[in-house]
Amino acid sequence: MDFDGVYRAEYGRCVATLTRFLGDISLAEEAVQDAFATAVEKWDEAPPNPGAWIVTTARNRAIDRLRRESTREARHAQALLLHGPDEPREVGPVRDDQLRLIFTCCHPALSPLARTALTLRLLGGLEVGEIARAYLVPETTVSQRIVRAKKKIRDAGIPYRVPRDGELPERLASVLTVLYLIFNEGYTSTRGDLLRTDLCLEAIRLARALADLMPGESEVTGLLALLLLTEARRPARVGASGELVVLAEQDRSLWNRELIAEGHELVRRCLRRDRPGPYQVQAAINAVHTDGRSTDWAQVLALYDRLWRLTPTPIVALNRAVAVAEVHGPAAALAGIEGLDLPGYHHLPATRANLLSRLGRDEDAIAAYDEAITLATNDTERAFLENRRARLRSG
């Protein structure tokens, strides 16, 4: 039985559902963790609906715990668990436990890192170390922010609901970031296998729900288009032996044409609105990649130039260098990334290694691959880099 797979697939939904019952994120998370610990002891194989089993067990554990408590708050929570309605009265127009949890975690009273770290922990089931690697920060920093965020949500009485229309815009940027990061963790997991399809599909589902909630927000449309166009390429991203297949080598006949068509239509909708934002530009870049038999790199570079003007970050500069290499050559691209500072980010030395090898500087490229391999945490990506290094060594 793939218990880890069940945990990854069900953890976020179970925490979100139990938070609706309990009204306390920390208590919900503890109860779900206890339920999974019980499952390890009792399951020989997963039940037909493992999520329902976990939620029921966690709810019962929470009731037992609250019965042992003597505070008024504990007695009130116990009454809700035992006698409360199955569905809460929703303030916003969307009835979705996970979307409610995202908006709760993305309350403006919390710091930006705390918002995304807490949501990735609760919705994605990511460990603190995985989140720390995604943000290139120490594990202790992430752990402290998560603890403080949950305490602040509890102490400040931050409501577990989708906000009213007037409150939505101030939460939007954080929510979009969270959905983007959840999808990215599914598309390139920080550890283990390359893909976590459950996270990709969950991020897309939540992005669709958000687009229904805020149909006039161009960046919401842009994010959904970006996720769809990226997901469309997933079937070609892993080879027959489980190896990573880069974009230039992918079999385009394996791409999902329905998702591509939907994504292109959403990009055209954004263009008609003419209110460009970072997610819309990234979606447009992916639309170029998925339009026709090959990529128009000059158009991609022009879009990266626009993205750079919107968000001049080292990550954008690094991704832009790939397009620069195709249009102006690897030497120009290498010059553009030499000053970048991205400690712990393996894609920087991996990109440098690729550019150096194209310039015939094999020894320098091998050294860059060594650095990238040391930093890579995903098994599939590490194997890909090791293969590229071995090809250079063999001449």
From TrEMBL:
Domain RNA polymerase sigma-70 region: residue ranges: 7-70
InterPro entries: DUF6596, RNA_pol_sigma-70_dom, RNA_pol_sigma70_r2, RNA_pol_sigma70_r4_t2, RNA_pol_sigma_r2, RNA_pol_sigma_r3/r4-like, TPR-like_helical_dom_sf, WH-like_DNA-bd_sf
Annotated keywords: Sigma factor, Transcription, Transcription regulation
SUPFAM superfamilies membership: Sigma2 domain of RNA polymerase sigma factors, Sigma3 and sigma4 domains of RNA polymerase sigma factors, TPR-like
Gene Ontology BP, a term: DNA-templated transcription initiation
One Gene Ontology molecular-function label: DNA binding
The RNA polymerase sigma factor 70 region 4 type domain, residue ranges: 102-153
Domain DUF6596, residue spans: 171-270
Family matches, as Gene3D superfamilies: 1.10.1740.10, Tetratricopeptide repeat domain, Winged helix-like DNA-binding domain superfamily/Winged helix DNA-binding domain
Family, similarity comment: Belongs to the sigma-70 factor family. ECF subfamily.
Protein name, entry field: Putative ECF subfamily RNA polymerase sigma-24 subunit
Organism: Amycolatopsis decaplanina DSM 44594
